[in-house]
């Protein structure tokens, strides 16, 4: 445990003091708790280790819930500590008192209230171990329990051996998958978790080469390695009609590191479950298991050869040429510019939503990069998750592809990027409204009246360049492809955070 | 029900459509749900009627919890509607699914999930009636239930007779209070709720004139009428040591519209309950009862005369002269400028925290105004609550006295002020950190190490003028008293929102 994303208050002061007592702990202030939770998520996705979050009572924690929801869906390990009132004081119902367990339970895979000062360090150790299973572990620490434990320091907990202490895959599942794949025909590997690591993908490609199966991944993967030199993965489309079509007619689907996909929203007449009901589905590796190892076991069991062309055949690390028709900013031209110019080993946090859609396809042949998605649909994750990723990987450039409406949820992230001097290039895809909602309204066949229309369009249009400057991040607005290419290249070249507002 | 503060998504679309089907409904978009909940609170405090909030699933609602917490502590009526997934879809655990009742229960005095489309309008009517009791009433509406009810419109619900449908006070309580007050000696009326309305305060003053009792109010009243021409009220100090001293030695405390005060935080060796244990405490009117009527009954029962000097004697509506020593911006000089220049009938939302402390005293003789405080301690209420107050009272100027750190929690409020062209003057008290936390650390006797120090100071210092401009609100930074006086006068004169960043 090396980092703590915090916005503490009076009831956390003994823990704040403790942050200075433990060498190697870094406290990172976030100006809103929703930044803390997403930053911890981003840190965990890139380091494989939990970050700590330190939050103030029920209301402070409540501000972090939406992004803990995303962390939960990403299966990110987070050690979350909430200070509470001293128990003798809580009984009097002071103004800030709230039912913290009721608020915390929906996002916490592990939840405990500390009741014994002499066991507080053990509680924390147990929470960290629980977090490493791939969940948010929440420890509620009443002020009196913290005070009683002051000065006591627990045993240090070493790094976990594998990223998330994942259990080994079941050999029976491997044998079943071999049988299905040997049966021939139209099969797919459906990957998530460590199945989308470079090693997992290479194993999947070997299986695909040996059997002809497809390789598909979740619409919103927590982390995916991709670009030149890495096997390609089909991403399941967002809208259920297209997703159903993508998976239709498969004889078998083998899940590794994820669960069968479900439609993002329920639409009357469209099934929730996106897998073809006639397909044979098996779980090679549960989300909690190590999908990478399971895929390697499967590749061996099936007698697959080396990966196609060998890694050497994919080692071209040049950039794809920049091809845009004209100088106009569109989701397509923006995607082409970013994909063409993004540097090697970039981390790309994609909360581009509708305006970001073309990027995934455009960046298939971009320089090798790590791709992070909005896992739980709670908007406002992108900027803070990129912030946490940058803290986990200070040597790697981070690019946040951010839809404007969602980005406004947690724009305070920019301040933490400025304070910590993080190498993040924030690309705001500014289309001036909640376009996804316009699309959803159109799907219902309704014609929005004036009240409905007021709820999807931004008028006045926020000026992100000024918002960035207000938080100490150099911000520019660009109006054409040339401007974007110039400013993006500059932002990548210069150290520290930058923001480019792209007027689509 | 005339207004709906909303940030809806796909699962609320039938309700969004309904907003256009009901004449007289106004949909107000907020760019973050924490703005919705505080705006509804501010609207309710100023209109006495509930506003509606319309929020998207568990994560969207979660973003609103902190300010619902404040609304709950203010006993503000709010009709809160959360769309949920269709129930047939929820069973498949789609990405945005969460345990909404567990999240909603801690802030909702009334909570129901609609299960029958034909009863949805009745559920809503019941929720509105429940809200009028002075609470957040949450109705969870699954998408399938909304769809089934499309086209059906419920019976309109008329305005409630008294502001919050408050029950009448118990005559036995009045008789007991008469006995205590006639016993002579050191007594106090301790007021909240409608006890702090102009009528309630005038009744309290009559009682005070007849019996010599003091008039005290909560540290953070939801709404208080004050200034020239209105009776003065002692505000209970924030820190418990001073609050205990304020209430020490009282023979009796008569509570009307509020409950006995509790220390904001628990400090070892300091009691939670701030009333002198030797005092006789009685509840003249519970928070749910109409304290104003109870005070008038008590004034009659005690045979109190007219209010001192009559209303005429307090009708001087001139401004207090501006007296500041020098041109330097300090909490004191800022308070003096605002108190001197604030126009008649202003609504002042005070989330000034440490930098705002001198304002309450300085404005005792300001032109008559309504004072709103941060009731539940969940920071980030000021700017959006001022926004809602401005929508409730379009003819009255609104002043938001806002601490910088707290204001950054919900700065998206500025955009709604710009879009709705609201007459709000936002005064940001910029001292560049969480100063209250520095004070609390000093109280513990600890000397903050570098990690602790990093958690209270803002470096870089945000530029609020630019942040305001980014949201379409004219923003300026002032560095001296003259600049503040000039810009404040200009902001009050000009229509629409303004922001003044006061560098203390």
Beta-strand percentage range of chain A: 15-25%
Largest interface: A-B, 98 and 99 residues
| Separate helix tally of chain A | 21
What is the helix fraction of residues of chain A, given as a range? 25-40%
Contiguous runs where pLDDT drops below 50 for at least 5 residues of chain A: 309-315
Q: Strand order within the widest sheet of chain A?
A: 9-14-13-15-16-18-17
Q: What does this molecule look like?
A:
Two copies of one chain form a homodimer. With 504 residues, the first copy, chain A, is α/β, with parallel strands linked by helices. Helices cover 38% and strands 18% of the residues of chain A. Chain A has helices at residues 13-21, 33-47, 57-62, 65-74, 87-90, 100-104, 120-131, 143-149, 171-182, 198-211, 240-247, 291-301, 331-341, 353-362, 382-392, 404-407, 413-419, 435-444, 450-454, 464-470, 481-493, and strands at 3-7, 26-29, 51-56, 78-84, 110-113, 136-142, 187-191, 214-217, 224-226, 234-235, 252-256, 280-285, 346-351, 369-373, 398-403, 424-430, 475-478, 498-503. In chain A, strands 9-14-13-15-16-18-17 form a seven-stranded mixed beta sheet, sandwiched between helices. In chain A, strands 2-1-3-4-6-5 form a six-stranded parallel beta sheet, sandwiched between helices. A five-stranded parallel beta sheet of chain A has the order 10-8-7-11-12, with helices on one face. In chain A, helix 7 links the parallel strand 5 (110-113) and strand 6. The model of chain A is unreliable at 309-315 (pLDDT under 50). The interface between A and B is large, with 98 and 99 residues.
């Amino acid at each position: 445990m090396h980092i703590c994303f915090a916005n503490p208050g009076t009831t956390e002061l003994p823990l704040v003091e403790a942050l200075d007592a433990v060498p190697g702990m870094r406290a990172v202030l976030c100006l809103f708790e929703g930044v803390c939770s997403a930053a911890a998520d981003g840190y965990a996705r890139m380091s494989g280790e939990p970050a700590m979050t330190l939050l103030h009572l029920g209301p402070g924690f409540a501000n972090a819930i939406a992004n803990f929801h995303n962390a939960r869906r990403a299966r990110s390990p987070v050690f979350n500590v909430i200070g509470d009132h001293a128990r003798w004081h809580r009984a009097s119902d002071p103004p800030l008192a709230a039912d913290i367990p009721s608020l915390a339970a929906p996002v916490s895979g592990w939840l405990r209230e500390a009741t014994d000062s002499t066991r507080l360090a053990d509680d924390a150790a147990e929470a960290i171990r629980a977090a490493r299973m791939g969940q948010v572990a929440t420890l509620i620490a009443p002020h009196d329990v913290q005070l009683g434990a002051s000065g006591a320091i627990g045993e240090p907990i070493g790094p976990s051996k594998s990223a998330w202490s994942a259990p080994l895959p079941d050999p029976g599942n491997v044998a079943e998958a071999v049988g299905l794949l040997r049966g021939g025909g139209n099969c797919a590997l459906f990957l998530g978790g460590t199945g989308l690591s470079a090693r997992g993908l290479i194993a999947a490609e070997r299986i695909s080469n040996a059997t002809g199966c497809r390789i598909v991944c979740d619409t919103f993967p927590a982390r995916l390695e991709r670009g030149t030199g890495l096997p390609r993965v089909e991403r399941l489309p967002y809208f259920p009609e297209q997703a159903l079509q993508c998976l239709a007619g498969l004889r078998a689907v083998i899940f590794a590191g994820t669960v069968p996909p479900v439609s993002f929203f329920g639409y009357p007449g469209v099934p929730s479950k996106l897998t073809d009901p006639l397909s044979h589905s098996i779980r090679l590796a549960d989300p909690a298991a190590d999908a990478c190892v399971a895929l390697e076991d499967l590749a061996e069991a099936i007698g697959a050869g080396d990966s196609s062309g060998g890694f050497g055949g994919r080692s071209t690390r040049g950039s794809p040429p920049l091809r845009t028709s004209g100088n106009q900013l569109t989701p397509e031209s923006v995607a082409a510019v970013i994909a063409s110019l993004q540097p090697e080993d970039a981390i790309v946090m994609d909360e581009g939503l509708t305006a970001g859609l073309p990027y995934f396809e455009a960046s298939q042949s971009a320089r090798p990069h790590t791709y992070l998605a909005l896992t739980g649909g709670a908007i406002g994750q992108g900027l803070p998750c990129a912030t946490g990723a940058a803290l986990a990987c200070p040597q790697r450039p981070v690019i946040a592809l951010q839809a404007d409406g969602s980005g406004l949820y947690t724009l305070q992230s920019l301040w933490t990027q400025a304070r910590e001097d993080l190498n993040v290039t924030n690309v705001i895809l500014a289309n001036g409204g909640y376009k996804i909602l316009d699309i959803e309204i159109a799907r219902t066949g309704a014609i929005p009246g004036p009240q409905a229309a007021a709820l999807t369009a931004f008028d006045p249009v926020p000026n992100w360049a000024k918002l960035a400057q207000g938080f100490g991040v150099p911000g520019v607005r660009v109006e054409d492809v040339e401007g974007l290419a110039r400013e993006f290249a500059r932002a990548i070249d210069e150290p520290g955070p930058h923001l480019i507002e792209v007027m689509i």
